[in-house]
Amino acid sequence: MAFRRFILFCCFVSLFAIFSCSDSETLEKNYLAGKEEYAKGNLDSALNYLNQVDKEDSCYSDTPIYLAKIEFYKGNFKKVEERLEDVLDDPILGFQAKLWKLKAGYAGGKDRKTLLSLVDELLLVDSSNLDLLIISAKINIEMGKISDAIRSYNRAVIQEDKIALAKKELALIYGKVDSKNKDVEAVSASNATIKRSPQSKNKRK
Question: 57-65 contacts: CB < 8 A, separation 24 or more?
């Protein structure tokens, strides 16, 4: 009797593991498919996949961020904050969540003073964020704070100059790497030609 119970218990555990694995695989497929559809710009399809993931499993912690972005680009600004509620205080995703909350609030016409307060909070975390600096400048202009707006735009321009410089330096590095690769390819091709030449065969003899 005890042995039969043990067998039944093992069968139950095995079936549970199989179904759990199957569910886990399905969730991962939906998650990856949702991200891929988002990257392609297929927002409705991405929303469908990621909604399924969000309902079933919270392990995919950045899913609310993707859902918020989708709602933003679909123009559903009020829904953005709803999507972000669970991650606004997340130690890793919190900054990104608040940034999208800010973007949605600005686009949706929320109170500028409240938004400026959020901008200041986020700038304490990342003072060089271009999105923040530009939104800060725009809000300050709307509120008649021209000197603050100019300050924000100046900081944004500095960051853009740094980005432009970084791109230039990166292009130079890629150019040098590409040049080295071409030199290696040329040497390899030359060596291959020498090995195939009749003279090289005679030398081996």
Answer: 57/27, 58/86, 60/27, 60/31, 61/87, 61/90, 61/92, 61/93, 62/93, 63/31, 63/34, 64/93, 64/97, 65/93, 65/96, 65/97, 65/100
Burial 106-119 (b: 16+ CB within 10 A, else e): beeebebeebbebb
Element (H, E) at 189: helix 146-196
* Inter-residue contact 43 to 74 (CB < 8 Å): yes
Q: What is the mean pLDDT of each run of 10 residues along the chain (205 residues)?
A: 40 34 78 96 96 85 96 96 94 96 96 95 95 95 95 92 86 77 55 49 45
Q: Is the pTM of this model over 0.90?
A: no
Specify the residue for token string 């071409």. 182
Question: Tokens representing 103?
Answer: 């973007």
Enter the tokens of residue 39.
């990257």
Most distant pair of Cα atoms in the chain: their distance: 89
The encoded tokens of residue 29 equal: 């497929």
